[in-house]
Every structure is written in C-alpha cells, then in structure tokens.
Amino acid sequence: MGHWSFLVLVVVIAALAFDFTNGFHDTANAMATSVATGALPPRVAVAISGALNLVGAFLSTEVAKTISGGIVDDTLVTPWMIFAGLVGAIVWNLLTWLFGLPSSSSHALFGGLIGAVWVGAGVKGVHFTEVTEKILIPAVASPVVAGVVAMVATYLAYVITRRGREREVTRGFRFGQVASASLVSLAHGTNDAQKTMGVITLTLISAGILSHGSGPPWWVVLLAGTAIALGTYAGGWRIIRTMGNGLADIQSPQGFAAETASTTVILASSHLGFALSTTQVCSGGILGAGIGRRLAEVRWGVAGRMALAWVFTLPAAAVVGGVSAAVAKQGTAGIVVICLAAVAVAVAIYTISRRDPVTAGNVNDQPTAPVVPATTAA
Amino acid sequence: MDVKWSALGEVALVSLGVGVAIVVIFAVGVLAASVRPRAAETDAPAGAGALGTVAAGLCFLACAAIAAYGIYLIVPQFH
C-alpha cells in the first residue's frame, strides 16, 4: 500500500488548480453570446453554466484512462513530470486569460505535458504523429466546420425572420439561446472534468494509493467537479467579453445560430470519434455567425490575435512545462521552488488584472479593440 | 499517421445538416409566433393567428425533441 507523499499532494492540488482555470477559461464557450445578447443576466449565466458543469462531472463515467490520450508515452511519465506539465498549463491559461484570449485548455495541458516529458524522459517520450493527428488537424478543422455551419444558419435565420417583428424575433431567439448554451455547458462538464479526474487517479495509482485499473474515488469526482464548477462560476469575464462582444457584434439570432452550431459540432464529433477542441469550435461558431449577418461586423484584428494565441498555446505551455520539469527534477527542493514560482506568477497576473478589471457589471461594455468603421456608416 | 478524414467529413456533414435544420425550424417557429400579435393589430381574420400559434408550437416541439436527443447523447447513463 502506498502513502501520501508531498509530491502526490502537490500534483493533486496542481490538477485541481488547473481544473479551476479550465472552468473560467471555458465559461465563455457556452455563455459568451448569451451574456452579450442579454438572453441571460451575466451572473445567472455563469451560475447555470457552473451547475451544469458539476452535473456533467458526476454524469461522466468514461474517465480518461491515459493522462494525455497517447500524445506522450504514459509509461515514462512520473508524478513530477505531471506536476511540471500542469504548472505549464496553468501559467499559460492565466496569461491568455489576462489578455482575454480564448485558448484551448486541453492544448495547454497537452503542451505542458509534452514539454515536461521532453525534458524529463527525452524526445522519444513524445509521440509527434499523435500530436499532428489529435491537435494540429482538429485545431484547423474545428473553427472551419463550426464557422460554416453557423454562417449558413445565421444567414437563413435572418432571411426567414425578415418579415417578423424585431422585438418578437429577438425575444424568441434569446429563449432558444438559453437552451443551446445549457447543452454546451453540460457537454463541457462531461468532457473536461473527467480529464482532471483521470490525471489525479493515474497519479494515485502510480503512487500505489489506488490499485491498478481502479476508477476515481468519489472524493476525486467531487473535488474535480467542484473545482471546474467554481472556476466556471468565477466567470472569466475577460474572455466572455472577447467572445461575446470582441469578435463580432452578436444579436440574438446570431447567438442562437452560433451556439446551436457549436453544440451540434461538439456532439457530432464526440459521437463520431473525431476529437475537436471546444474552445475553437465555439470561437469558429461566433465568427461564422458574424460573417453570416454582415462581413464587416467581424473584427478581424481580434480574430487574428486569437488565432495567434492558438498557435502559441502548445509551444508556450511546453516551454513552461519543460523549464518546470528541469527544476522539479532536482527533487523536493526543486518542486517547492516551482510551487512558489507558480503562485508568484498567479498573484502577479491577478494583480495586473485588477488594474483593468472586467466583472459581471462591465462585461458587455465595448472592449478597447478597434471597431470597424463600416458600422458607423450604416 | 492515421488521420480519420472520413470521420471528419462525417462530422462536418452531419453538423451542417442538423445545425442548419434546427436553426431553420426554430426561425420558422419564431416567425409563426409573431403572426398572432400582428394579426390582432391589423384586424386580420382570427384564423391566421391561431394557425400561426399551432405552427410555432410544432416547430418548438421539434426543436425540443432534438435538444432532448442531444441530452441523450451527452449523458452516458442513457446508452
């Protein structure tokens, strides 16, 4: 029978911290357009999303059997590498949050692990073909697929309801948005919470606390679900603002089209076995909805910065994960140093964010990004 | 490398078909629902409003059914 070492405790805490950042990073995926169009008051939106994430965490029975889904060689992975990888993912998630950029939390986690394993076990521990298959191609495909669906749907929604009265139409689509956004939240809970549960469970198994092949104990499910739900409820308003108001001016028919497109793509891909990134699906859906109404309404500058963040997510998290691994390798002292450094970075980023806070109160104000002048001509 | 191109194509086609269908049905429902208040204002024959309400009800029911299927797909216990 194994025992709770300092390292195991640190990995569990880091995994829960990552889960929390995952939650507030991804609230925007489900709720950004509902908040932007006024379908839901901001605080109600994050409360619904948080609750459904918690429900989703308890519903998911298919807990991740591998830490990385085959992207790194799991037999070479040790707890301190997992720890270093998680630190890389957390730091990158906090940094992109500070800039209000919706980047994929899964990519951050994979990136952190790749960096940590590369430094810890050598380049042979990283499966690059898997990286291409599971990250590169889905990253390009997801926004395109969701964007095209949302664009066609938005266009048709406006054509069909053109003769309807605007007030009635807006109200009708807002109602629909609540339903489609809730489905995204539920799907998110069943997918993302189980990744953290998998990481914690596999760490406990490697430490001998759980026997091989055992599922997550109830307290792991509870902690992981709570961490992601609290993160979701905390709101990540900076990213909600970017996705709801920054990318495009979203009206309720567009919000409904974007969310419906995202929900369908997420469900279809998880059902037909093609892994797509939720964040990128939802961003693509919002862009498509912007194009579907009027091309000029899309702020391509914001979209470009977002795409840049997507490209950098994996390598940047990998660098942080790799540096953390190099230090954590030195033993307990190294791990303590990385812990303190991670906390310091988190506090620094939080302090900087307080200079220009984005809250439930001002989430719908226009971001400072340049507004396309074409809108003023209309 | 084993990229599942056919799975990707399938996802794209199914999403396009289903996603667009839901939005179109919902949009027709919203339009039909707005017929009734308009009919009241313009003294149109009373039947137009009732017909609109029934059509809207059917559209929203269809969307609710698809949403229920979505929940069925999300919740593993149902499988």
UniProtKB/TrEMBL annotation, chain A:
Q: What membrane topology does the annotation report for this chain?
A: Multi-pass membrane protein
Per UniProt, subcellular location reads as: Membrane
- Please provide the record's keywords in A-Z order: Membrane, Phosphate transport, Transmembrane, Transmembrane helix, Transport
Has the keyword Transport been applied to this entry?
Answer: yes
Q: Which GO terms describe its cellular component?
A: membrane
The record lists the membrane-crossing segments as 80-101, 108-129, 135-158, 196-212, 218-240, 307-327, 333-352
- Under the GO molecular function aspect, what terms does this record hold? phosphate transmembrane transporter activity
**Which GO biological process categories is it annotated with?**
phosphate ion transmembrane transport
Q: Which family does it belong to?
A: Belongs to the inorganic phosphate transporter (PiT) (TC 2.A.20) family.
Q: What is this protein called?
A: Phosphate transporter
Q: Which organism is it from?
A: Actinoallomurus iriomotensis
Automatic annotation (TrEMBL), chain B:
Q: What is this protein called?
A: Uncharacterized protein
Transmembrane segments annotated in the record for this chain:
12-35, 47-75
Query: Looking at the record's lineage, which domain of life comes first?
Result: Bacteria
Q: What species is this protein from?
A: Actinoallomurus iriomotensis
Which keywords belong to this entry? Membrane, Transmembrane, Transmembrane helix
